[in-house]
């Protein structure tokens, strides 16, 4: 298996507050990898560090063979073309309609003619199960599930090798959440991107992730598959898994 993201000896501090204390994880190409942990354990911070939005760390983060602290501007742009991001609350631009929200990414990172941008944006929208007419709606008129799908369509705009998802099912009702899990699995089997997601959703953890890490008390206390976690004798891992196992029973 080929490594696509390597985190080594990473320490994150905000002032005196240590969020990650010398943590290391490895994400392999093509897997669906979860960053798990209690609230405030630094999951989103780790994801934000990987996508160059947070820089308060020491140690190594290597993505597709590149140390992300040593990128030239050109390399940074090239690397960003390889990934799509779905932020926790969808984070669509409220003043733009759905089509424009997806198109901005294509306009920023490609030289495609406008007609092709529109066709591509609509095809991404359809991939996420939304109808073409949704393209002309404003985000405020969409349901929570539709916002997530539209935001996922935007994340898919550049056919990313890497898809970063921050709490993809949070805020969704159970039916929409499970439908979103299925969509992620379907898109993954179609395009085989590496998916890195922050989640605390027990069903997603048990049914969608290939491997995951668990952050507790600033450390990575576990990295591996769900079955391996269930078999772990580590007290912290067992305590973390208990409510998840009860929920999925
Ligand atoms: N830019 C920042 N400046 C100062 N503190 C920060 C910053 N970003 C995050 N933190 C702190 O780092 C800690 C970890 O935050 P983070 O959002 O990564 O946790 P999380 O595990 O994703 O939590 P949740 O599950 O609640 O979203 C929190 O105590 C948070 O307040």
Which percent range fits the helix content? 25-40%
Q: Give the terminus-to-terminus CA distance.
A: 32 Å
Count the beta strands.
Answer: 10
- Sheet with most strands: strand arrangement: 6-7-8-3-9-10
Compressed to H and E, one letter per element, the order equals EEEHEEHEHHHEHEHEEHH
Number of helix segments?
A: 9
Ligands bound to this protein structure:
adenosine-5'-triphosphate
Q: Sheet with the most strands?
A: 6 strands, mixed
| Poorly predicted sequence stretches spanning 5 or more consecutive residues | none
Structural class: alpha/beta
- Backbone CA Rg: 18 Å
Q: What is the overall shape?
A: globular
Which whole number gives the mean pLDDT? 94
This entry's quaternary arrangement is single chain
| Percent of residues in beta strands | 25-35%
Textual characterization of the structure:
This protein is of the alpha/beta class and 249 residues long. It is built from nine helices and ten strands. It has helices at 43-50, 73-80, 98-109, 114-127, 144-155, 174-191, 202-207, 226-231, 235-248, and strands at 3-14, 17-28, 32-37, 57-63, 66-67, 83-86, 162-166, 194-198, 211-216, 219-224. A hairpin with a 2-residue loop joins strand 1 (3-14) and strand 2. Helix 3 (98-109) packs parallel to helix 5 and helix 4 (114-127) crosses helix 5 (144-155). The chain is globular, with a radius of gyration of 18 Å. The mean pLDDT is 94. Adenosine-5'-triphosphate binds next to helix 1.
